[in-house]
Amino acid sequence: MITFSEIIERLKDIVALEIGDKKVYDKDVAHALGLSAASFATMKKREKIPYDELMSFCSMKKISINWLLFNQNPSSLVESTNRFSYVKYFPDVSISAGGGAWNEQEEYEILGIEEQLLDRILGMGKGEQIEAVNVSGDSMEPGINDGSVVFIDRGRVDITKGGIFAVLTPAGLFVKRLQLRLDGAIDIISDNKDYPVQVVNSDEVSIVGKVIGQFGEVF
Fold first, then answer.
1. What is the pLDDT of residue 1?
2. 188 vs 141: CA distance, rounded Å
3. C-alpha 158: how far from its chain's center?
4. In 1-95, which residue ranges form alpha helices assigned H by DSSP?
5. What fold, for 1-75?
6. Is 181 buried (19+), middle (13-18) or exposed (0-12) by CB count in 10 A?
7. How far apart are CA 20 and CA 23, in angstroms?
8. Phi and psi (nearest 5°) for 146?
9. Are 88 and 131 in contact (CB under 8 A)?
10. What is the pLDDT of residue 197?
11. CA-CA distance, 106 to 89, in Å (whole number)?
């Protein structure tokens, strides 16, 4: 994946096509993404890529997210559609910090991701069962940061071997590391050690799917 600074330069080129001969500044890119100049400056300083805003921008402008994030030549994407996997992205669903619902009635966008790229990011998985959502909160840092976009395979709900899952609990919808106990209870674990381990009975929770990756990283 290219750096945030390189992504900004690409966005400036796109914005420049719309505003004519005027010089394009960071504040113009921030406006195009729907971010305040202050928030954008903070993200740039921290190299924190605003995935949610980028995907919405690309969807609106009909720009390949592969090209923007992974420096993949757009001409290489002009191939038969069976080379692509299509993933549902729910921009209004944020999970991890607590609460919320997630179902097929939620509004979603369709992301077309080239299959080789999807395989490299996510490994094995069926595209129709993989969905993308936002993560809010720091409970899974440093592995999953606040604002990350994660991919969840709804077809993988077996927690016998553990792993990171989207799980619906009485307290809400979360992304957590799950570990099955010998007595059948489940440890709900935050990677951020500031958060205590919770123990629940298996009949108190519903496993939505396994988190198999996020942009730029495979789990």
1. 61
2. 15
3. 22
4. 4-19, 26-33, 37-46, 51-61, 65-70
5. 434 Repressor (Amino-terminal Domain) (1.10.260)
6. exposed
7. 9
8. -55, 130
9. yes
10. 92
11. 10
Of 152, 35, 38, 29, which Cα lies nearest the Cα of 102?
152
* Rounded alpha-carbon distances, angstroms, from residue 65 to 69, 112, 113, 123, 215: 6, 8, 8, 19, 11
Q: Which CATH architecture has domain 80-219?
A: Ribbon (2.10)
Q: How many CB atoms lie within 10 A of CB 129?
A: 14
Residues of the chain with pLDDT under 50: 74-82, 84, 97-101, 104-105, 124
The confidence score (pLDDT) of residue 217 equals: 56
Tell me how far apart the alpha carbons of residues 131 and 7 are, in angstroms, rounded to a whole number: 24
| Class of residue 182 by CB neighbours under 10 A (exposed 0-12, middle 13-18, buried 19+) | exposed
Alpha-carbon span 197 to 66, nearest angstrom: 37
Instruction: Give dist(CA 119, CA 102) in Å, integer.
Output: 25
Residue type, 128: E
90: which 2 tokens?
A: 């729910």
- How many whole angstroms separate alpha carbon 147 and alpha carbon 138? 9
Asked whether 148 and 161 are in contact (CB, 8 A), the reply is no
Domain residue spans in the chain? Answer: 1-75, 80-219
Q: Are 149 and 132 contacting, i.e. CB atoms less than 8 angstroms apart?
A: yes
**Number of Cβ within a 10 Å radius of residue 58:** 20
